[in-house]
Amino acid sequence: xxxxxxxxxxxxxxxxxxxxxxxxxxxxxxxxxxxxxxxxxxxxxxxxxxxxxxxxxxxxxxxxxxxxxxxxxxxxxxxxxxxxxxxxxxxxxxxxxxxxxxxxxxxxxxxxxxxxxxxxxxxxxxxxxxxxxxxxxxxxxxxxxxxxxxxxxxxxxxxxxxxxxxxxxxxxxxxxxxxxxxxxxxxxxxxxxxxxxxxxxxxxxxxxxxxxxxxxxxxxxxxxxxxxxxxxxxxxxxxxxxxxxxxxxxxxxxxxxxxxxxxxxxxxxxxxxxxxxxxxxxxxxxx
Length: 287
Description:
mainly beta, Lipocalin, 9% helix, globular
């Protein structure tokens, strides 16, 4: 009997470990706690977990950063809240456990208080794009939509000036682009320790339309970083959308390349422009 009980226990542990599918956890989760939205975005590669956490996500002062590990019991992680200079302000320690489409998060805040949240995926799903959009949890792709413009070629790009030699200080802040109104995109870049991390959102109240920014590298006048797509985006999931950027005056000119797509031929003048940077503190109060 004792051997049978031990065997049953071992089988239960094996089943528990097998049940921890990264696709169950990856991407954005949301909950409203005492009238305040809370969002967590997990990027998972192997057992390494990183990402972002925020409340009113277009308020860059609420952005914090997630680091953790996926194991047999779910995700154990730390949320690091940073000061303007990148120093750690506080750390929350938590675990997340997937259960029937929801995420149970329990932990201890930096101030010592306990918390327990139940988070869910946003029922609105991702926004449509000009190409079909995949999503997690698995569901039919969001169909492509046609946007106004009549198929006319874009006007030639005019560079605002000589590209600047870049520093972390030059990049920190909020850069805005891709439209106007509630669907415009906020690229938030913050100091974390001696490096840079961030997030992009647009619209910023839907976890499907946000992603962590990471892997920042500066070489002279060139910036590279990755947009970590986990639970939505064109093609197979997850993927990195690598950004190559240059800055002049108040413009950041970016080109992107997805690692889940074949390399594309060079397109002179292609890309997009972000405007900024707006100071992190200047976005306080965005709702």
